[in-house]
Design brief:
- The termini are far apart.
- This protein has 13 helices and eleven strands.
- Strands 2-1-3-10-4-11 form a six-stranded mixed sheet, with helices on both faces. Strands 7-6-8-5-9 form a five-stranded mixed sheet.
- It has 330 residues and is α/β, with parallel strands linked by helices.
- It folds into two domains: 165 residues, D-Maltodextrin-Binding Protein, domain 2; 97 residues, D-Maltodextrin-Binding Protein, domain 2, CATH 3.40.190.
- It is elongated, with a radius of gyration of 22 Å.
Length: 330
Amino acid sequence: MNPRTPLSTARRALLAGVALACALPGLALAQAFPSKPLRVIVSFPPGGAADQIARAVSEPLSQALGQPVVVENRAGANGNIAGDFVAKQPADGHTLLMSSGGTVSINPHLYSKMSFDPTRDLVPVAAAARVLVFLEVNPDKVKVNDAREFLAHLKRNPGKLSFGSPGNGSSPHLAGEMMKSQANVFATHIPYRGAAPAMQDLLGGQIDFMFDPGIGLQHVKSGKLKLLAVGSPRRSPQFPDVPTLDEIGLKGFDADTWFGFYAPGATPQPVIAKLNAEINKVLRSPAFIERMNAIGAIPAPMSPQDFGARGQIDSIRFGALIRARNIKGD
């Protein structure tokens, strides 16, 4: 008999025991979770895509977990205020961040200093929705028939048109910079504190156009705004006749944003797995799908690992754009 075999078997048993001992606290916490109400901290003001997604998830998630799920808005610094708050909460799964992936994948490129490390202090829990951006104009100010005419109009009027966004470095802002770069046009960016006030100024004629993260689609349907194109690799299921910017010549144009939930970095994996499973059930429900259709978003159930990988991809592509356009955070 090999004299090493008993030792090897003993070692394996010891390692298995250590692994089980390490896992037991997390498993016990997951079995007891949740033990109190959950807080979902939204990184943008009320009315925007993040807020609408959080509220669409909160009620059915509360029913599934048997605890209240309270939504709180902590806007500012392109998500950094909410991100910093959640990063410093107890890592027990009872406080979650709802934000665009920009808090993790974009902000480190925008800000030279941050009060927390998004990749260390936050952990992906569950994606929620892929939010498309829709290129919309105020038809009373910008009298064009389609996106090609619009780009030609921009070229003839460099710097005379303005566009709004929820803030410097926000996804709609980056979409505008992407379009300016690829089409070789110029327009003035006006940052707002959230998508809702930017939309109000677009409707009021204070700005000319906007990459809308879905909150103004009812105004497109009513005729108050004109939808010219979608800043996505594929056409919107809701507007199948509206072309993508890729189709009209801006090849590879993709400004889609992935919104989702994050937890403090040390949150035990069993708790994350439980939250991911319950949130994904909500995302597949007809009620959630209907609410996302209303803002032109696409539910995106996936694992925490896949959501994290998506953030890494966005960090690479948006980081390059931020450096090329010398974009700075507020």
